[in-house]
Design a protein that fits this description.
The structure holds 2 protein chains of 2 kinds.
Chain A: E1 6-12, E2 32-33, E3 37-38, H1 41-49, E4 54-59, H2 64-71, E5 84-87, H3 104-109, H4 112-116, E6 122-127, E7 130-132, H5 136-145, E8 150-156, E9 166-170, E10 176-181, E11 190-199, H6 200-212, H7 220-230, E12 235-240, E13 244-246, H8 250-259, E14 286-288, E15 293-299, E16 304-305, E17 308-314, E18 319-320, E19 325-327, E20 330-331, E21 336-337, E22 342-344, E23 346-348, E24 353-354, E25 359-360, E26 369-371
Parallel strand pairs in A: 1-4, 1-6, 4-5, 8-12, 14-16, 15-17, 16-18, 17-19, 17-20, 18-21, 19-22, 20-23, 21-24, 22-25, 23-26
Antiparallel strand pairs in A: 2-3, 6-11, 7-13, 8-11, 9-10
Chain B: E1 4-9, E2 30-31, E3 35-36, H1 39-47, E4 52-57, H2 62-68, E5 82-87, H3 100-106, H4 108-112, E6 118-123, E7 126-127, H5 132-142, E8 146-153, E9 164-168, E10 174-179, E11 187-197, H6 198-211, H7 217-223, E12 230-234, E13 240-241, H8 245-254, H9 258-262, E14 281-283, E15 288-290, E16 292-294, E17 299-300, E18 303-305, E19 308-309, E20 314-315, E21 320-322, E22 325-326, E23 331-332, E24 337-339, E25 341-343, E26 348-349, E27 354-356, E28 363-365
Parallel strand pairs in B: 1-4, 1-6, 4-5, 8-12, 14-17, 15-18, 16-19, 17-20, 18-21, 19-22, 20-23, 21-24, 22-25, 23-26, 24-27, 25-28
Antiparallel strand pairs in B: 2-3, 6-11, 7-13, 8-11, 9-10
The chains are: A alpha/beta, B alpha/beta.
Chain lengths: ~375, ~375
């Protein structure tokens, strides 16, 4: 396969603590989404579909499952000669102490030796916990056309929400003159997506200096990007149009799943030219019983549905018993809703069983109820 | 422990599945939505720790070879194991020469090269789960020359009509192999599955070739019944033999029933297949689905009842699909009513608003056809 001289590094160390019990045992990028996927499938599939052959995944928090999951590079077709997905947790080195990754930039700095073995011209830095489809090779083309030193992907957000994001202030030609992290009075609505393309040689020098800087927080947004701007480097904003979601909370994870129920949803997971690849599970197709009632739902293989499912997303192997009702809810892999139980506006975590006739969640709750423990049945 | 290599055999000339077989060999038929028929014999081998597998393709190899790929999806060790396709080029002059014996003969070198002492041969047109390791052990323990697998049925008058029967004595010795002519209901259906030593297999192939160029493996084994110690072992659990159009249709629909499905599928015995990376299936506001098996990647707005739906099918608003088997990528248009049909891959039924066949004689819609 043709090499495009760009190595991708996915930052996947985050805990995602606002996802509460969902991330007690697994890192946020490994959280399930959309019936059969994990969040990290999105950047990995985007890499594979964009012709990137070498992907490093920087893991840290609760990384056992994530490490073994991403190490099987063939799921995303990243197993040809010269291609691979490499798991890079912090490690002890001969000339330095074992250190956790102190920030996003430090995670890259600690792996300079890894990147150097491929001597890439460009480095793509991605976040492992966003849901979107994007062709990074087009972004690279733009980076080259502009003769940029760094290119940052941005998405237009509603102006009233702009103060929640890292905002890029740009000139008419798309060049960035200022970066503001969560500005109180935003001047633009172009939010950083945490996707960067750098000229590797230049970034390398900067990272080496940053490692030694005791004042630095070793973060791309807070330290590296401002330094580049101060040095008068050419930074460009690459405008992305389409579905993009950072699922930081239970409510937003639920909402991102519900987005899939729209007929013309922007993410379009069935697009044959840009498939999202994931683990291949060995199960039967899903079974719909004689008394089942399914309306507006997203259902995957291995599910068994005997009851009612409305406005809900069911993950691999979820079961809904006879007379049970699942409404406005998300059932993660292996969830069992037993006969007569009722689940409303809830997100039920992996493998949780809701006992017979139990009632979980309510239609008028402000927030989505996270059900992470077994719910006993009602006699 | 005794070790065997496996051969997945192709159907002979006496078997023809109308419609579907025009395009591919039976092993490559889509089955129960997401499988192909050949996934069952290969998974049986893989689960039995038999990792040297040869698949004979008698005709139309494209679809099957495409599905098998490197065989990685069958959980075969990628270094020690191997999935090899045996082609036969005997049909060029006349199809009568295109027999399994001819193919084995032509590929004799790679059979002789095998290190395993035993060979297990199983067909690509039957759906069942069987632990071949247990079967091999039973064969070794019995000290028989050949062990044949059979299934006792009580509907041989109307089903299994193109299959062979085993005529057994009380000690399960095989007296002869005969055609099922539908004359009695209780019969031992031969599952075209053989266990024997590799050396004996090679000897039989060479012998058959000398007797007649049209001889099949079943024929030479039948002929040897008096000379050799050939015994039958009974199979239990689900069996479907896909040997004509109706049996294909019936087998698919029979597995919607969860009790029947449980007699074929269980967690200890996974059936592997090739992933297509389809997204989950999407149900819309007007969907009305009862008693069906649905694969991934479908968009469903219509009504489904007692049907098996393959990957990536589109069922439009107002469409009604009853008692049908819809193969992957098919489209059933708005307000189209179909009943008792097998709709082949990527067919589109848009203009014909009613395609209904009698239940005892289901209809067939051709691959990539537009109606």
């Amino acid at each position: 396969m043709k090499q495009n001289n760009m190595v991708a590094m996915i930052l996947a160390g985050g805990r995602g603590s606002r996802l509460h019990d969902l991330t007690n045992k697994v890192a946020k990028p490994a959280v399930s989404y959309g019936g059969k996927y994990r969040i990290v499938d999105f950047p990995l599939s985007n890499c594979a579909n964009s012709g990137i052959d070498v992907v490093g995944v920087l893991t840290q928090y609760e990384s056992v499952l994530l490490n073994s999951y991403v190490a099987a590079g063939r799921r995303w077709g990243l197993d040809a000669k010269g291609s691979g997905v490499y798991v890079l947790p912090p490690r002890e080195k001969a000339d330095a102490n074992l250190d956790v990754y102190r920030g996003t930039a430090d995670a890259i700095s600690q792996n300079i030796d890894f990147i150097d073995t491929y001597s890439p011209e460009y480095l793509l830095v991605l976040s492992g916990d966003h849901i979107y489809k994007m062709n990074y090779s087009k972004m690279l083309d733009y980076h080259k056309e502009q003769g940029a030193d760094a290119t940052i992907a941005v998405i237009e957000v509603p102006m009233r929400e702009a103060s929640r994001f890292g905002i890029m202030n740009t000139n008419e030609d798309g060049s960035i003159y200022e970066f503001e992290e969560k500005p109180e009075h935003p001047k633009s609505n172009l939010a950083s997506m945490g996707i960067y393309i750098f000229d590797w040689k230049q970034l390398r020098k900067l990272l080496v200096a940053d490692m030694k800087d005791s004042e630095s927080s070793h973060d791309f947004g807070k330290d590296i990007i401002p330094t580049l701007l101060n040095d008068g480097k050419k930074l460009f904003a690459y405008k992305y149009k389409g579905y993009w979601k950072d699922v930081g909370t239970i409510d937003s994870l639920w909402e991102a799943n519900m987005d899939l129920l729209d007929k013309k949803n922007e993410l379009d997971l069935s697009d044959p030219t840009w498939k999202i690849y994931t683990e291949d599970v060995t199960t039967l197709p899903h079974y719909v019983g004689a008394d089942a009632d399914i309306k507006r739902a997203f259902i995957t293989q291995g599910c068994v549905i005997e009851g009612e499912v409305k406005n809900s997303v069911l993950f691999t192997g979820a079961k809904v018993g006879a007379g049970a009702k699942v409404i406005d809810s998300v059932l993660m892999p292996g969830v069992e809703v037993e006969a007569g139980a009722k689940v409303t506006r809830a997100l039920v975590a992996d493998g949780v069983r809701i006992g017979e006739n139990a009632v979980v969640g309510s239609a008028d709750s402000e927030h989505i109820e996270l059900v992470a423990k077994r719910v006993k049945g009602v006699e | 422990m005794a070790k065997a290599f496996g051969i997945v055999n192709a159907s002979g000339k006496h078997i023809w599945v109308e419609g579907l077989e025009t395009y591919r060999t039976i092993g490559a038929f889509s089955f129960l939505g997401r499988y192909r028929v050949v996934d069952f014999p290969i998974s049986n081998f893989s689960n039995s720790d038999i990792e040297q597998i040869k698949v004979f393709v008698r005709r139309k190899p494209r679809s099957l070879v495409d599905h098998l790929g490197t065989g990685r999806h069958y959980s075969i060790n990628s270094k020690r194991g191997k999935l090899q396709v045996l082609f036969s080029e005997n049909s060029a002059d006349n199809d009568i020469y295109n027999t399994d014996i001819a193919a084995f003969h032509e590929n004799m070198e790679c059979i002789e090269r095998m290190h395993e002492q035993y060979v297990i041969i199983t067909p690509n047109y039957m759906v069942f789960a069987q632990n071949f390791d247990t079967l091999l052990q039973a064969h070794v323990d019995s000290e028989a020359d050949i062990t044949l697998l059979y299934h006792t049925v009580d509907n041989a008058k109307e089903a299994f009509l193109n299959c062979d029967l085993l005529n057994l004595n009380k000690q399960k010795g095989v007296l002869s192999i005969e055609k099922n002519r539908g004359t009695a209901k209780n019969r031992n259906i031969f599952m075209d599955t053989y266990v024997m030593k590799k050396e004996l297999f090679i000897e039989l192939v060479k012998k058959a070739k000398k007797i007649s160029s049209m001889y099949t493996l079943a024929q030479i084994v039948s002929k040897e019944c008096e000379e050799l110690d050939i015994r039958g072992v009974a199979h239990r659990g689900y069996l479907a033999s896909i040997t004509d159009f109706k049996s294909y249709y019936d087998a698919n629909l029979s597995l919607i029933d969860s009790k029947t499905a449980a007699s074929l599928f269980n967690e200890e015995w996974p059936i592997y297949t090739r992933t297509n990376n389809s997204s989950p299936t999407q149900y819309f506001e007007d969907a009305n689905v009862k008693y069906s098996v649905v694969s991934n990647g479908c968009l469903i707005e219509g009504t489904l009842e007692n049907s098996v739906i393959g990957r990536g099918c589109v069922i439009k608003k107002g469409a009604v699909v009853k008692n049908s088997v819809i193969l992957p990528g098919a489209l059933i248009g708005e307000d189209v009513h179909i009943e008792n049909q097998v709709v082949d891959k990527r067919a589109k039924i848009i203009h014909a608003k009613e395609v209904i066949s009698p239940s005892e004689k289901p209809g067939y819609v051709r691959r990539e056809d537009t109606l």
